[in-house]
Amino acid sequence: MKHYIGLEFLSILTTASARSGSNLNAVLASLALGIHAQEGRPEPLPLPLLASLLEQLETRASRGRFIFALAEAFNFDAMPAVSAFLVSAHSLRQLNALLEWVPVLVHPELRFDIEDHGSAISLHPRVDSEDPRLIDHPLLVELMMAIVAHLSAQIAPNMVGARRVTFKHAPTSAPALYETYFRCPVGFHSDANTMFGDNQLLDGILPGSLPHAHKSAEETIRQHLLGDGLAPPLTMQIDYLFRQHLSLFSAGLAGLARAMNMHPRALQRQLSFAGSSYSMLLRRIRHEHAVNMLRNPNLDIDTIALKLGFTERRSFTLAFRQWQGCTPREYRSAAKRVLTT
């Protein structure tokens, strides 16, 4: 099956390739990627193909990092409501919603987790994939971090950005390049991919603050980009059900379909159309719940495993290690250290 990239993404890739000296034509030819010139958005590229595209363009770059050039070229110009939502925000905190919409607006297997630690806040880019090679793929993670840094600097040029950035992988280029781009200390071989910031900065008034325009843009996004104007998107409905009924973690696809008054095959078809699957959603939602539960010292790990539908603690530990690169106990200890620093 031939895969295609849209004109908007092609424009961003072309700009980034020109800035970094990468050969876009050669890479598109090597991956047999076509150009989608019809109306509407093409299907998202399969994540392994997107990763290969980034790898080849990064390798061929002759002037700096392609990934950073791509982040600088990234925009939502093809989605006017999203652009308006960004530039009219009253504060950076209002833009947290945009991070929650990444799976719908950008790619169904890319998302962000946000943790509030009181005076500090941390942002974790996450790749939802069944392929272990992609879960913490360095270029995917770096691109997500770099885009957040770029958009923040665009919207709030006079505010201090990230306080610190950490990556689980080794540097893919000179460490100094990272600190120049992110304008803060950058660490590697860390327990988690994280961007740390000061919570109070999120409430500073932005220069483009237009509350009425911001509200109107958000309504347009929710009605025409995230859903059908009548009900929230399918994945959001499922997120809500799992939050309200933890028993669904043990109910399987059939149990979830019953809770939604749907036939299992119909639910599978709709999830496929949305670029997702039951196993992908279950993994993501389990991961999100696990991270939140582990921050509650009153819940022991065996209880958390049972609540999330695992038959034994060992299965939960193996799954969590795939998600985070560490055991639940190690994650809980690391989260506790962050709160006390």
From TrEMBL:
Record carries keyword DNA-binding: yes
PANTHER family per the UniProt record, alphabetical: HTH-TYPE TRANSCRIPTIONAL REGULATOR GADX
Keywords for this protein: DNA-binding, Transcription, Transcription regulation
InterPro entries: AraC-type_N, Homeodomain-like_sf, HTH_AraC
Protein name, UniProt field: Helix-turn-helix domain-containing protein
Organism ancestry: Bacteria, Pseudomonadati, Pseudomonadota, Gammaproteobacteria, Moraxellales
Transmembrane domains' residue ranges: none
One Pfam family in the UniProt entry: Arabinose_bd
Every HTH araC/xylS-type domain range: 236-334
